[in-house]
Amino acid sequence: MEGHNNIVLIGMPGVGKSTVGVILAKVLGYQFVDADLVIQEQEGKLLCEIIEEVGTDGFIEVENRVNAGIEAEHTIIATGGSVVYGKEAMEHLRDIGTVVYLEVPYEILEKRLADIKGRGVVLRDGQTLHDLYLERTPLYEKYAHVRVSEENLNVEQTVEKLIEKLQFLNNNKQKYE
Ligand SMILES: Nc1ncnc2c1ncn2[C@@H]1O[C@H](COP(=O)(O)OP(=O)(O)O)[C@@H](O)[C@H]1O
Ligand SMILES: O=C(O)C1=C[C@@H](OP(=O)(O)O)[C@@H](O)[C@H](O)C1
Ligand SMILES: [Mg+2]
């Protein structure tokens, strides 16, 4: 990650990667990139159109390819929740930045995602949100350099907690590299 200085947010859909990411970028004076928008721009289609055309597995391939090619410096990168299925994407993102897993208890997530289908989450037939949560949690944990829980925190408090955690990491860099 040396020299690139990016911060990469991963976690379940609705956890706040996009919302928190853009505020974090403003507070830290970083650039902001939402990987979902990069996919839409590069493919010339909406995420839901890609999923409709090539299915969930096809979307995961596209997402993997696009994220594996992201070039950024001094940037907060908000990924899409399914990026952790892409090995090349995650290895690249870990190379160019500090990967932060934003965690939220399942019960809170369920409330936030009441309209889950409308958000275009990569859910296979018959799979529930809870199945998805259980399937992905170990992947988020595996690829994260650091975890930040937003239990009982609002957006602003989450941003503050992230900054504190990142400053702590920065101050103790040698210990983590
Ligand atoms: N503590 C919190 N941190 C982040 N988002 C929160 C929090 N509490 C509530 N929210 C809400 O949850 C939603 C997160 O959506 P979004 O940023 O699109 O998530 P993601 O990009 O991870 O899918 C927003 O509507 C945001 O206002
Ligand atoms: O987790 C998922 O399956 C997805 C999350 C979305 O991004 P957010 O995590 O920003 O909602 C988007 O990439 C796509 O619709 C699939
Ligand atoms: Mg998002």
Automatic annotation (TrEMBL):
Substrate binds at residues 36, 81, 136. InterPro entries: P-loop_NTPase (IPR027417), Shikimate/glucono_kinase (IPR031322), Shikimate_kinase/TSH1 (IPR000623). Mg(2+) binds at residue 18. It is an enzyme of class 2 (transferase). Its cofactor is Mg(2+). Keywords: Amino-acid biosynthesis, Aromatic amino acid biosynthesis, ATP-binding, Cytoplasm, Kinase, Magnesium, Metal-binding, Nucleotide-binding, Transferase. Its main location: cytoplasm. Coiled coil: none annotated. It comes from the Bacteria. Pathway: Metabolic intermediate biosynthesis; chorismate biosynthesis; chorismate from D-erythrose 4-phosphate and phosphoenolpyruvate: step 5/7. The keyword Lipid metabolism does not apply. It catalyses: shikimate + ATP = 3-phosphoshikimate + ADP + H(+). It holds the Pfam family SKI. ATP binds at residues 14-19, 119. One of its GO terms (molecular function) is magnesium ion binding. Monomer. HAMAP family: Shikimate_kinase (MF_00109). Belongs to the shikimate kinase family. This is Shikimate kinase. It comes from Roseburia porci.
